[in-house]
Amino acid sequence: MKTIEELLRNGESRLKDAYIEDAKLDAWYLMEYCFHMSRVSFLLDRNKPVSEEKEREYITLIEKRKSHIPLQHITGEQEFMGYSFYVNEHVLIPRQDTEILVEEIVPYASGKKILDMCTGSGCILISLSKEVDLHVGVGADISSEALKVAKKNAVRNQSEVRFVQSDLFTQINETFDIIVSNPPYIESREVDCLMPEVRLHEPRIALDGMEDGLYFYKKIIEQSVFHLNQGGRIFFEIGYNQGEAVSRLLEEAGYSEIKVKKDLAQLDRVVSAKL
C-alpha cells in the first residue's frame, strides 16, 4: 500500500511525464478533490496508507488529466470573483482575466437592468448580481446546453437572474442600461493552435470569432444601439490586440467615452463605452 504522500508524488510524476504544465499543482488539486483533504490534514496524514480503492480513484483522475482534460472539467468546478461555478464541456472555463470585466462594470451596475450577451456559464452576470443589487439581470446564449449550466450556477449562488436562448439579439425584446459581453474573439486560424485543454475540450462556438476575430463585436455593436437606453453603457472583454479595432467600431456606431482597460499583464482586456 502507498502512503498518501507517495500517491501524490506518483501523481505528480505521471503528469510531468505527460508534459502537463502545472503538474505539481494539478496533482495536489486532484488529491484535494479525491480525498476532501486540506493542506493541513495532508501534512498530518501524509504517512498513512491509502486503500487500493482510493488509490485507483486518484490514479483514474490523474489519467484523465494526463489526456489533457482540463482540471475544472474533472472536478466540475471553477472559482470566479470568489464564487463557485459549475463548469463542463459546454461552456468556457471562467478565467481570472475576466474578473477585470466584472470589476469595471460594478461601479455602474447598482439598480440597473443588465444584459449579458453570450453568457456561457453565467459567471459574469451572476457575479455582478452578488456584488451589487441589480434591478434586472438577463443572460443570453445561443447554446441550450450552456444555458443549463448557467441556470445551475444561478441556483448554486442564489442569484435571481434569468436566462434566454437567443442567437445574439433575435429573442431580446427589451432595452437595458448595461450590455456586457465576452464573445468569441479568437481568429478562426488561431483556434487550432490553442493548447489541447482549450482546443479539444472547450466549446469552439465560444472561441471562434471568425476570420478576423471581430465578427461578434461587429454584430453586437450594430444591434446594441436598439437595446440600450440612452446614456447606457456597453462593456466587452477583448483579445490583447483588439482594443483599437473594437474602439473604432464603437465610435462608428455613435458611442462616446470609449475606454480601454488593461489586465495585470498590461495587455488590453476590456473596452467600454457610453451611448
From TrEMBL:
Source organism, top-level taxon: Bacteria
Residue ranges annotated for the Release factor glutamine methyltransferase N-terminal domain, each copy included: 6-76
GO molecular function terms attached to this record: nucleic acid binding; peptide chain release factor N(5)-glutamine methyltransferase activity
Keywords on record: Methyltransferase, S-adenosyl-L-methionine, Transferase
GO terms under biological process: methylation
Ligand binding (S-adenosyl-L-methionine): 141, 182
Family annotation (Pfam families): MTS, PrmC_N
Residue ranges of domain Methyltransferase small in the record: 98-192
Root EC class: transferase
Catalytic activity: L-glutaminyl-[peptide chain release factor] + S-adenosyl-L-methionine = N(5)-methyl-L-glutaminyl-[peptide chain release factor] + S-adenosyl-L-homocysteine + H(+)
Entry binding sites for substrate: 182-185
EC number: 2.1.1.297
Stated role: Methylates the class 1 translation termination release factors RF1/PrfA and RF2/PrfB on the glutamine residue of the universally conserved GGQ motif.
PANTHER family: HEMK METHYLTRANSFERASE (PTHR18895), MTRF1L RELEASE FACTOR GLUTAMINE METHYLTRANSFERASE (PTHR18895:SF74)
UniProt cross-references to HAMAP family, sorted A to Z: RF_methyltr_PrmC
NCBIfam families assigned: hemK_fam, RF_mod_PrmC
Family: Belongs to the protein N5-glutamine methyltransferase family. PrmC subfamily.
Name listed for the protein in its UniProt record: Release factor glutamine methyltransferase
